[in-house]
Design goal:
Number of strands: 32
Radius of gyration: 24 Å
Bound molecules: oxalic acid, manganese (II) ion
Number of helices: 16
Oligomer: single chain
Structural class: alpha/beta
Strand content: 15-25%
Largest sheet: 10 strands, mixed
Length: 639
């Protein structure tokens, strides 16, 4: 006896094995046998079933057939629409209330508050994470999860973050009642039964996710909605002491693909602190000079500052090439030779679509033409996706539908694609992947770059005076707000290490952990830089052409790594000497404009930083970081 959900093909239709799980009304089981699971996985799954009471359970094996069956199921549920102009590409439209990460409902749960966050600011919102007590968490879970999957299928997803065989990789399991999440996890992580043996010791991260059951909608409305969610009660909770993630109420991106921000950044940053490595919101790329010398760099930018574009850049400097290892997250550890090695824990890209085009990112455009799940982009009448930035591809007669499924025409008051609409594509589709992107040893990192969107005052590039100063530079990062989270407007937000929304423990201790890297003996510390592609002139125009021209900055960074003496000291760091940064062929760009030195800007900047540190880090700010701020203030006074 089994209930089939519609007439879908492939694995999901295989006759289920009846299980006496918890007695009574046991759910139907699809795929492998629960008894075949390593006991700790089986226990986690049984607990999930008992709590959430799904009507049936599917154990994901990562097979091709399973992928096809998931797509068929999602089409039938009305979640996915075909994009016949592309190859095996699909469009999902979410509930308009579920379109971004919800930072205000993202919490860390630890016994002691101080293990999660620095002391709360005297007045105002905490900026560096939110803490929830274990008892409040237990109550929140009790209010949300019992029976939340009734009438839905539970997918059990064994997955690995990082290449198989890598000492840096981690296996984990996600339980979810969203087929969209199961399909996306197959792109973003390495899903498959081959992960199961790595889970047998039980020390894996347990991720529980439900899209939830809205209390403000009647049963009928709930059933009709292709994108169930519960925005009023969304909660994304991290329990680092138990290696658990519990996410409720949202099916979107970082809220629901739990391997990404929740595991690979928040939980992993805490694991990294305890185990002596680094889990960072950084892209990884390899730069090769015309003479064939190659350096890998990791770069941290806040969300939507062009990390994906930089990672896949086509250099505008003849003879140079750039290859991509990852576009969002880096796990890094010093190896036995003292070399900092990095892996990309992900297997795909969850990139912001608007602004991506042949001009800005040809490699991403090639990647998204196959095997891609698009979310909240617009739709062209010829069956291609559409978003702001692709206007030049519109041919006469093509009509458009916006991300909410309504007719749309250019010049409308609202955008066709949601500003945080995404493509979810396998990394292997990207033509500029680095040959070593899946090397289990990771790639050797020679330089670390911090950056942000700074319309004024902050130069195109500068190098930190050393590791301690570099940690200060990372802690002092600020950037204009983005659409990736619920913030709006052009406000400058502090975003230390681009980790503000992703710290998995007290951010003050995070800075201490970074500082401690320089106390290790026998390690080769990468050089640290800061870049700003976003300087504007008084009329609001960008002073720097960006994109492929950023290779000019990478070339200078490589020259510094190779020990060239071509820098000039400024109060804030070392900048390229005039002539050391290749500006040939850019007549509209002036060296002076790219490297401003404005005493009142830096006075304002350091005053604001002091306020920010005092209010948000309090006594958890490492002394060394404060010393660096004081040294900067001193150098500014001498300008
Ligand atoms: C992302 C983000 O989606 O940083 O990568 O918000
Ligand atoms: Mn990111």
């Amino acid at each position: 006896m089994h209930r089939a959900i519609g007439s879908i093909g492939g694995r999901l239709l295989r006759a289920p094995l009846s299980r006496g799980l918890t007695g009574g009304s046991a759910p139907h089981l699809w795929g492998a046998d629960l008894a075949s699971l390593p006991p700790p996985v089986r226990q986690f799954v049984e607990e999930g079933i008992e709590l959430c009471q799904p009507s049936d359970v599917h154990l994901c094996d990562g097979s091709k057939e399973e992928g096809e069956a998931l797509i068929a199921l999602l089409r039938e549920q009305g979640v996915l629409h075909p994009l016949p102009k592309y190859d095996n590409c699909w469009l999902a439209r979410t509930d308009p209330r579920d379109v971004a990460r919800v930072e205000s409902r993202t919490v860390l749960v630890t016994e002691r508050e101080r293990d999660s966050v620095p002391p709360a600011p005297p007045n105002g919102e905490p900026q560096l994470g939110r803490w929830l007590s274990p008892s409040a968490m237990a109550e929140a879970q009790r209010q949300r999860f019992p029976g939340c999957m009734r009438g839905r299928r539970l997918f059990v997803i064994p997955f690995r973050m990082g290449p198989a065989g890598s000492a840096l990789a981690r296996a984990a399991v996600q339980l979810t009642d969203s087929a969209y999440v199961a399909a996306s996890m197959r792109i973003m992580t390495r899903v498959g039964s081959d992960v199961l043996p790595d889970l047998r010791h039980g020390d894996f991260v347990r991720c529980l996710h439900s899209v939830g059951r809205s209390q403000t909608h009647s049963g009928d409305a709930r059933r009709r909605s292709a994108w169930p969610c519960d925005p009023e009660r969304t909660l994304i909770a991290h329990l680092p002491e138990e290696l658990r993630v519990v996410s409720y109420g949202s099916g979107y991106g970082g809220n629901s693909l739990l391997g990404k921000k929740c595991l690979a950044l928040r939980i992993a940053s805490r694991m990294a602190r305890d185990q002596g490595w680094l889990a960072e919101h950084m892209l990884i790329l390899g730069v090769t000079s015309p003479s064939g010398r190659k350096h890998y760099v990791a770069a941290a930018f806040p969300s939507a500052c062009g990390k994906t574009n930089l990672a896949m850049m086509r250099p505008a400097l003849p003879g140079w090439s750039v290859h991509c290892v990852g576009d969002d997250i880096a796990w890094m550890k010093f190896d036995d030779d003292g070399v900092l090695r990095a892996i990309n824990p992900e297997r795909g890209f969850f990139g912001v679509a608007p602004g991506t085009s042949e001009r800005t990112n040809a490699a991403a455009m090639a990647a998204v033409r196959r095997d891609t799940l698009f979310t909240n982009v617009g739709l062209r009448s010829d069956g291609a996706p559409f978003w702001e930035g692709l206007e030049d591809q519109l041919s006469p007669g093509t009509t458009l539908t916006d991300w909410r499924g309504r007719p749309w025409s250019p010049g409308s008051a609202h955008p066709c694609a949601h500003p945080n609409s995404r493509f979810c594509s396998p990394a292997a589709n990207c033509p500029s992947m680095d040959p070593s992107w899946e090397d289990p040893r990771g790639v050797p990192i020679d330089a670390i770059i911090f950056g942000g969107r700074r319309p004024e005052g902050v130069p195109l590039v500068y190098e930190a005076f050393g590791w301690q100063h570099g940690v200060f530079v990372g802690s002092a990062m600020r950037s204009e707000a983005t659409a990736a989270a619920e913030h709006t407007g052009r406000r400058l937000l502090h975003d230390p290490f681009a980790m503000r929304p992703f710290f998995g423990y007290n951010a003050g201790r995070y800075l201490s952990h970074w500082l401690s890297m320089s106390h290790r003996s026998g390690v080769r510390l990468p050089r640290i830089f800061h870049v700003n592609w976003f300087l504007r002139d008084p009329s609001g125009r960008f002073r720097w052409p960006g994109f492929g021209h950023n290779a000019r900055v990478l070339a200078w960074i490589c020259s510094r790594v190779e020990g060239e003496d071509n820098a000039r000291e400024m109060p804030f760091g070392l900048i390229p000497r005039e002539g050391a940064l290749d500006l040939r062929g850019l007549p509209e760009v002036s060296y002076e404009d790219l490297f401003p030195l404005d005493r009142s800007f830096w006075e304002g900047e350091s005053k604001e930083l002091r306020r920010y540190y005092e209010e948000n880090f309090g006594e958890d700010l490492p002394r060394e970081v404060l010393e660096e701020l004081e040294a900067l203030e001193e150098r500014i006074r001498k300008i």
